[in-house]
Design brief:
about 10% strand; five-stranded parallel beta sheet; alpha/beta
C-alpha cells in the first residue's frame, strides 16, 4: 500500500474515531477492490432507499476523477487523435475510469423482473446476467438484512465474485455470505448511512491513489 493510501485511511480514523473498530475490514475491502481492478474486473453496487443513492454515489466516484487527475489510457488517447479536432476535444475532457455499475439504475429490467417475478430478486437477476468471476459486488444495507441484497450476494458467491457489504452494527444476515463486512458501530438507519459515506469515500480515494497516481 502506498504511503499516500495509508495516509487517507489514517485521516479517516482520525476524523471518525468511532470507525477504528472497522479499520481492518476497510483495509481488507480496499485490497479486494484493488485486486479486482488490477485483474480487469468490474464493481457492481446495490442498496435500497438512501443506500440506493449511496450506490449511485459510489459509482459516480469510480467512473470519473474523484480527488486527483486521472489520465485516460494511452492507446485510446492516440486513437482519438486520429479524429482531428473532435478527438482532441475528447482527449482533453475524458477522465480515467474504474468500471462500476449501479444495479439500482436499470429501471427497465428492474420493473420488468419485479412485475413478472419478484422484487427481492431484481439485483440477483442482473448480477446473474452481468457478473463475471473476479468482479466485485458491494451491497449496502443498514440492517444487513435486505433480502434483495442477500440474494444478490448469494448469486455473486455462486459465480465466484468477491463480495463486500457495508452495514450497521452486527452485520445482519449478510455477514453469513460476504467475504468482507464493514459493520459501522450504529444501528439507527440515518446514523449508519452517515458513517457509510466517509467509508466509501475513503475507499474511492485510496483506489484512485493506488491505480492512477504515478
Amino acid at each position: 500500500m502506498k504511503r499516500n493510501t495509508q495516509k487517507i485511511l489514517a485521516e479517516l480514523m482520525e476524523k471518525y474515531p468511532q470507525l477504528k473498530g472497522c479499520f481492518s475490514d476497510i483495509e481488507k475491502a480496499f485490497v479486494m477492490l484493488k485486486n479486482c481492478y488490477e485483474n480487469c474486473g468490474s464493481v457492481f453496487v446495490c442498496g435500497n432507499g438512501g443506500s440506493a443513492s449511496d450506490s449511485e454515489h459510489i459509482v459516480g466516484e469510480l467512473l470519473k476523477n474523484f480527488k486527483k487527475h486521472r489520465p485516460i489510457q494511452r492507446v485510446v488517447y492516440e486513437k482519438l487523435q486520429d479524429f482531428g479536432e473532435d478527438g482532441a476535444y475528447l482527449c482533453e475532457k475524458l477522465e480515467g475510469a474504474l468500471p462500476a455499475y449501479s444495479l439500482n439504475s436499470q429501471t427497465g429490467i428492474m420493473t420488468a423482473f419485479a412485475n413478472d417475478k419478484s422484487w427481492d430478486a431484481v439485483f440477483a437477476q442482473q448480477l446473474y446476467g452481468l457478473g463475471r468471476e473476479g468482479d466485485c459486488l458491494i451491497s449496502l444495507s443498514t440492517s444487513g438484512n435486505s433480502k434483495n441484497c442477500i440474494y444478490a450476494t448469494m448469486v455473486a458467491k455462486a459465480k465466484h465474485l468477491v463480495t463486500i457489504s457495508l452495514t450497521g452494527e452486527g452485520g445482519g444476515e449478510l455477514k453469513k455470505y460476504c467475504d468482507c463486512i464493514i459493520a459501522v458501530p450504529e444501528m439507527e438507519t440515518y446514523k449508519v448511512q452517515e458513517l457509510h459515506l466517509p467509508v466509501y469515500h475513503c475507499l474511492c480515494a485510496m483506489l484512485e491513489v493506488e491505480l492512477f497516481e504515478v
